[in-house]
Amino acid sequence: MAKLDTKLEIKTGLGNEYICEMQDNYTEVKSVVQKVDNADEYTQVASFGLISGIGSAAGMRMSGAKLVVIKNNNDIPLEIQIQTSEFKDNSNVDELNSVDLGPDSATVTRQISYILASNEYMVLPSTWMVNYAEAHSAANAKTINNQGGFDVNSGKLYSAAITDIATALENDTTTFVVDDTDFFNVGDLIQLGSTTGTTATNIEIARVVSITNTTTMELERGLYGSITADKDAQTDSTNGAVVNAKVYLPFFNTQENYDKYHDDANAVGKVQTNSSGRYTAQNLFGYGRTADGVCDGIVKGSFALKFYNAGYQELGLSGITPSTNTGLAASTTYQFNITVDGGSTFVDLAFTTDATNLNFGGNNGVLQKIQAALDTQFYTSGNLFEKQVTVGIVNGDVRFTSGTRNRVSAILLAAPGSGTTPFGVGRIPAIGSIESAVVATLPDDTIEDKTYNISVSNKAVFAYDDAKGNILGVATGTLNYETGAIDITGPANAEFVVSFNYDSAHSGGLNQTNTLKTLSARSLNSKLDSEIEVLGFV
User: Fold this and answer.
1) What does the pLDDT read at residue 96?
2) Is residue 503 predicted with pLDDT exceeding 90?
3) Contact partners, residue 507, CB within 8 Å, separation at least 6
4) How far apart are CA 110 and CA 82, in angstroms?
5) Over the stretch 59-98, which tens digit does the pLDDT of each residue have?
6) Which of 162, 321, 337, 347 is the most exposed place for a label (fewest CB within 10 A)?
7) Which residues contact 367 (CB under 8 A, 6 or more apart)?
8) How buried is residue 479: exposed, middle or buried, by Cβ count under 10 Å (0-12/13-18/19+)?
9) What is the dihedral of CA 172, 177, 178, 179, to 10 degrees?
10) For residue 199, which of 167, 162, 239 has the smallest C-alpha distance?
């Protein structure tokens, strides 16, 4: 894959300079130079969209062009015709708009005519172009706003039913027959069953390897630690492997086994990054899938994601620095209780102060001693196992912060059940006087500009896409607009919510209706031919 660098530089006689730059990748350069006459019906120069949809259309095929340059190569003016598809809104459902415009009967195709004078040129940075009836957005049919995985299906890590099983599934076959394969793409994960530990409804995760026809596809089975379903065992009529049972789209984190973040019978859990900050799934919470494939997928540029802030508890101090003396006794074992992320309380967590360093910070300081005790329990079976907690000085106070950023992220400190308490000793407040725990929250979408008393976007808390499949901001990764497949790297053990538009005219990957369809040209001069050149980076 080669890199495409585009730069437009405009200089004025007054000393002004304007520079526009764009970078992208491409695999192939396609070009065509065409003499055109004055015929009223135009000469088709290039065609776009899916190859399968172009058919026998004349002209250079530039399916998937990321940059198109259209140039008049001489001093004879050209008339350019650009064909697109027209959509309309039908009760928040975008659909093709067929209108009898005469004299060529009803059609969804619309034409734009543009004059390109001698030696002029125009640049299209992409071919994402549609017509839309009336003054409404072609990208706004359906909207998701700050929705987490837990909002989709009552906390379950899979979508509502997509289609039904048409032929009961044996455990030794890879051929799978359903009512309609139009909802699926090669590479999709599908889910049969809805529970863990209940034979009749036990979950299987499988991958779509190929799609044979409108009802049949081939599967790779029993993935991500799941069982291989069998019609003789998974017998539930709704959530089994028998005829008319449901097929779902799972969106668990595929960096782990399917049940890593849920452990109950109904597969209720959390959609979150793992301990390395990775989250991957083959669909975006099951949205953007339709049977007709005309307006499906995710709208390019509409995606936004934000993570939960971690829960924490502070002691309620002020002006604390690493060199501040705690007032605790030397070489003394202190204990306290701590509850993390809504789990069971760890009773009598013990730390022993240093013989000489009784400051909050520094080598062998009190906070370092507490942190070491917390880290030990992270690797030890018990109520703090794999529950990360950090303790440190934040804004002059001592803060205990959960290592997870999800809905249940929380810290609760309490006096010990036995032993010597640090609360009420030296600079440490009594347990009844420390600050109340702060539970996990989502950051605000907007912040207030105090100077102008207006709300502005809180961009610093979002990850977002660039309409080219890249995710930027507080997480980085990729997004597939056709399937919703997502791959991000962000903060570790973090739950998130997303906002996006879907099932709109501008949704999805490349098809024959959401892109410029054809480019044609004719000479404007009845006596003289002209010449057009089209360059596409595909």
Assistant:
1) 93
2) yes
3) 94, 139, 141, 288, 295, 296, 297, 298, 299, 300, 481, 501, 514
4) 8
5) 888 988 889 999 999 999 999 999 999 999 988 889 999 9
6) 321
7) 360, 361, 391, 392, 393, 398
8) buried
9) -160
10) 239
Model confidence pLDDT, tens digit, residues 105-156: 889 999 999 999 999 999 999 999 999 998 889 999 999 999 999 999 999 9
Task: Map residue 201 onto helix, strand or coil.
Answer: helix
Among 374, 390, 368, 372, residue whose Cα is nearest residue 491: 390
Q: Give the residue-averaged pLDDT of 252-269.
A: 90
Q: Which residues pair with 106 in a beta bridge?
A: 100
CA dist 24 and 442 (Å) reads 34
Please report the sign of the dihedral spanned by the C-alpha atoms of residue 365, residue 370, residue 371, residue 377. positive
Instruction: Calculate mean pLDDT across residues 169-196.
Output: 96
The rounded distance, in Å, linking the Cα atoms of 263 and 351 is 33
pLDDT for 56 = 65
Phi/psi of residue 2, nearest 5 degrees? -100, 160
Provide the edge-to-edge strand list for the sheet that holds 312-314: 312-314, 397-402, 389-394
CA distance 328 to 296: 63
What is the strand order of the sheet 204-211 is part of? 163-164, 246-248, 189-192, 204-211, 216-220, 175-177
Task: Dump pLDDT digits (tens) for 197-218.
Answer: 899 999 999 999 999 999 999 9
Q: Which residues of 303-341 are buried (b: 16+ CB within 10 A; e: fewer)?
A: bbbbbbbbbbbbbebeebeeebebebeeeeebbbbbbbb
Q: What tokens does 299 get?
A: 């709208």
Strand ranges inside 90-187, DSSP E: 94-96, 99-100, 106-107, 109-116, 121-124, 131-132, 142-148, 163-164, 175-177
Which class for 1: exposed (0-12), middle (13-18), buried (19 or more C-beta within 10 A)?
exposed
Are the beta carbons of 371 and 410 closer than 8 angstroms?
A: no
* Per-residue pLDDT at 55 exceeds 70: no
Measuring CA to CA, which residue among 71, 80, 81, 70 is closest to residue 119?
A: 71
Q: CB of 172 within 8 A of CB of 310? A: no
Whether pLDDT at 103 is above 90: no
- Give pLDDT, residue 243: 97
* CA–CA distance, 152 with 284 (Å, rounded to integer): 11
Give 426's DSSP letter: T
195: tokens are: 């529970």
pLDDT per residue as tens digits for the range 320-350: 999 999 999 999 999 999 999 999 999 999 9
**Taking the chain, what is the end-to-end CA distance rounded to the nearest angstrom?**
10
